[in-house]
What does this fold into?
Amino acid sequence: APALRPSRPRRGPAAPRQHQRGCPRSAPGLARLQRIGRRGGPGRSCCGAPAGDMGLEPLFQAWSYFRRRKFRECADVCSQLLERPPGEQVAGAGPRREAAAAWNLKTRALTEMVYVDEIDMDQEGIAEMILDENAIAQVARPGTSLKLPGTSQGGGPSPAVRPVTQSGRPITGFVRPSTQSGRPSTMEQAIRTPRTALTARPITSASGGYGRLGTASMLTNPDGPFINLSRLNLTKYAQKPKLAKALFEYIFHHENDVKNALDLAALATEHAQFKDWWWKVQIGKCYYRLGLYREAEKQFKSALKQQDMVDTILYLAKVYLRLDQPVTALNLFKQGLDRFPGEVTLICGIARIYEEMNNISSAAEYYKDVLKQDNTHVEAIACIGSNHFYSDQPEIALRFYRRLLQMGVYNCQLFNNLGLCCFYAQQYDMTLSSFERALFLAENEEETADVWYNLGHVAVGIGDLNLAYQCFKLTLVNNNDYAEAYNNLAVLEMRKGHTEQARALLQTASSLAPHMYEPHFNVAILSEKVGDLQRSYTAAQKSEEAFPGHVDTQQLIKQLKEHFAML
Amino acid sequence: MSLFKARDWWSTIIGEKEEFDQGCLCVADVDNSGSGQDKVIVGSYKGYLRIFNPHPVKPGDEVQPEDLLLEVQLREPVLQVEVGKFVSGTEGLHLAVLHCRKLCVYAVSGTQGNVEHGNQYQIKLMYEHNLQRTACNMTYGPFGGVKGRDLICIQSMDGMLMLFEQESYAFGRFLPGFLLPGPLAYSSRTDSFITVSSCQQVESYKYQVLAFATDADERQDTEQQKLSSGKRLAVDWVLNIGEQALDICVVSFNQGVSSVFVLGERNFFCLKDNGQIRFMKKLDYSPSCFIPYCSVQEGTINTLIANHSKMLNVYQDVTLKWATQLPCIPVSVKVANFQDLKGVIVTLSDDGHLQCSYLGTDPSLFQAPKVDSREINYEEMNAEMKELQKIIREATKTQDVLPESEKQRDVTVTAEVSPNLDEESQAIDSEVKAGAVPSVTVKVTIQSRVTAQKPSLAVCVQAPLAVTCDQFVFGDLEPDSSETVVLSVFLRENCCPSELEGTCMVSYNIPTGIPRVAQCNFSLPLKLICFPTQPSKAANHKLTIDTNKPPISFVTIFPDFVDPSEGDQANVLGFEFLTGSKTTLLASKTSQRYRIQSDQLEDLWLVTKELIHRLQVHFKKQNCKDFACTFSGSIPLQEYFELIDRHFELRLNAERFQELLSERAVQFRAIERRLLTRFKDKTPAPLQHLDTLLEGTFREVIALADAAEENQASMFQAFAKLKSATHLVITLISLWQKLSTDQVAILEATFLPLAEDTQELGWEETVDAAISYLLRTCLSKSSKEQALTLSSQLSMPKDTSRLKKNITLFCDRLAKGGRLSLGTDSVTQQAAVMPGGCATIPESDLEERTIIPGSTAMFSSNGQITKQKSKP
It folds into this structure.
């Protein structure tokens, strides 16, 4: 993984809109930069000389490997050490302290190999959303909940300019786990929610994702698991704090066995007479995964009383966000900033919450604060860049993206965004070459589809409708769930006068992405033109539902109503 | 990721396949030259000790041979090198080298030569200590506040701190609760050792306390004693940081304020003397090493932190001041002063890449690699583009057009039904209660004139009939080859089929990849589902079919049912269906009539159809063209309505079951939710029989589901009967009104729109809508009726009275001479009565035009449009 916040971009600026009466196209989408969770160290490195040709102590060798994050080698040396006294695998049982030390080291090495910062993990499955008992009010007051995107208080751009996600939030500049899925309100909606080709089904339960992360570890141990959890006497280990902490992390991160981890942590915190904040945080983490948010909150709060730690604050804020109390989380972050001034993760947390609450200007402020503390922060740069792009300042956005490029971010999404910015900033010479590079760097069909989609916009912009048509077709070849492309293709078909084809395409678009207002509105226009007023009216109403502030829709509805009144 | 790269001032790669770690790098003026010029001392796990004096002529130069002052191979791996005042009686700097089981202190001295490359350096062993235990790392300093000399403290792998007062061994102490060694540092301000234990705590031990604790060497026999000795070793302070640490540094730049810096695996801490956190920073990368190097601004301390992403970050407290890229991952970083250059960053990677660098401001921008671009040949590209566009145009042109003509069928499929039933029945899993279920063999042949790729054959018959195998997949067919498969058809479910027909369908790809389909139909013999039996005289339902020819003996037309021994005068024939019901066929001896009678209306259908069919075939054979059947009795609507009601009732039941099921499911979820809260509760509360309720609801859900399934099965049977009856009614109506084939087709489309009926879209509403449409268009009496608009949504009706009324009305209108047609005359009629203000929808005209290709019709409808348009 590259340095700092490695990042994946997100879908880029989407379509320019036609402002004559009639068919708007979906906005172009800036690709979202994404973050890769911090993973364990590099794999097996080539320069691992076998231990001790100069008589290095094997345990020391393993310890040194661990410090250099050569976990594979470390685990191998430890395994050899553990095999030496036969039948003495149980740590701390015999008089051999070395065995215990090697066991501990191997446990830690195996954990580090699959370690992903728990704070970055956030997936909400259907089960979590539907069986959510923590909701306080069914209808939250505006500005206090993440569930209702609400109208933008911070003067954010309208969906006409900036594409929105399923749940109606403007798309951010950076892919984070929680930005990927909207929060459906009913079971039916959750199941019906269209998925991309990559994930055919919604995540049914969060534990699935964790399990998959964990299975990586199974491959590394052909002889079966290193520690057999079912035979473990947790009470015994809980009384040995030095072993217990490593064991807990192993069970939690490597085995993903939250229940056993929780048992161990509960015993250990009791043994520590509830004086060790670390155990409380771990119990909180377990509770969080089990969906017991209130209990997790108690543990984290109690831990914070004992010792102020950045991680604890982040965990607690995560709990509040899951409980849908963004304002509490904001306050917590701000208190945290008093204690740890200038902590980037806290400021960034605030910015993300503001962004999710649709308060774009505050979010931008905080992202700027992040850059003051850490000017290599990719997420902040990407988010500010996309903000500028969607607020019609492509030149400034271009500078932010160029900075990312100079810093060494080199991927499809970035070039995609650069290409779009160049186009809108009227630097036509760079546009096509950027897109060319983006296509060259695209790693999967989804990315290729994004690039072709944006190329289609460029083609529309220069008036080459044939090229545009083919670009959108290519988008669909690469990703046949691309609702925006269907919509735009329909607009092109409509221009050619192929009404029926346009209608079919629009229908596909609206069934793929019911949250987009464009297909509905286009259907309304189309039906109105052919005289099918009833259908036009229903479509217009759907469009208004998706985007209440759309002036053209309102006008159309008004006109239709007059028409009906006349009849 | 950064804009900048560490500018290479001097660098070299040491040794081959040697390993280095944190302790292997040290920077000091080790030869006491007094010039203030630091030397770089590097030890390796291979036992090499090297001293460098970097002085490049210009930055980035190659290494000069004289830069390497000294290289010796020691016998043991070098774990750590430190420089300090280790020899008594002198304040000069000496070099301490830590091996696994030995500590050596050397003096390094140089002799000036005449020219630069003539300088000679050597090391001289001052003293050495053999260690009882495997060493891990060491620290040094003026322990106990001694002036002018440094003492050494070595941490062993098993947790003993061994203290050496220069040439003599002072004492050893075990650390309590030790498991794995952590980093070790000495704080001179508080005179204490600071380490991070396996409990993930920063621990501080006073030197005084260590000195006065029980001597570990005397009491190390057993674990127990060691622990007890450890207990007496009291900790000064403890801070739980919740992670393992990589390194500890104690620095004090501002007078009076000293800080303990701890580099954890995920966070970076700065602690006060008393172990409180001054500040901390969460790192979003994996750090590898660090060094706090100076204080630029009052009250803040600058730190270099290198990480495993090959970056070196400069922090002022927690603010990132600079980030720079390194060529490799360093395991150790130091800051040194050379010649005229102060503050050079010295880094060492674990494979021996030693680099001295500085933070240049000229950015080393990331150069995106060139996309491999071809020489552009415009002519070729133009030609290729044209070619491609041609292909695209071709593809888009032929996309929606139907395959050319039926004559040039590439693949034909034929089905041949064997005239006799199988001798040995092939029926499997039949639910029919009758003793033996017969089956009939169908031979399907596929003939191909071209290459057909991946052909697959599907044979389908309407349930309750079934085939032994309904899917066949073949290998690619060569041109002019054929495939034959044999299968059997039999009655599977215990009800009577409404039609005795089946379909074969072959799907295949032609070599260009376009998928194609070929199909054929086949009809099955009546014998498959019934057998001759004794005729019965009495029956509930009777139909009489009139013909215009004298009656034919059943021996002639039903040879397969009549026993020839009965003679040719057989005019009564009995059929018994496999399901058990009976139908009797009577031929009048005198008049030209046939009578069909049965207890069930639906059972009449198949026999009636067979009779008419066989009569037609028979007369065709005799070249008698004016044969016709008629029906003059009244249509048995009342009996038909009973069947409709029965079917509708079952649909209502199904709906009720569905509602109940969803109610119970909601209840189930609600109970689940309550139980969940109960279980989540910290204090266990009684369940208050919620579990019983849950189980009860679960049972109810299952029972309801079972009932719904049963209902579905009987609904399927009812629908089959309804279909049979409908076929019968259609036939009777067409015989009664002597309808043409086109009209019969309309009638069939009206009454049998669905292959299957479902809860959402059922037979009743569809037929109702179709009949209402016909009543309003071609069968309408007045223009007033036509103006009514149709409701766009089909939904299940509340009862069937409207449908019955419509069917009755439909028959009435037909009787009064209504003509069934969808022709343009009705459209013109309709258009004429449209109110003038409302223009016709052009789109629907388009549709009409495509449906009816008649040229006269086209003309009239076109004329209509122009007229319409000129109106407003």
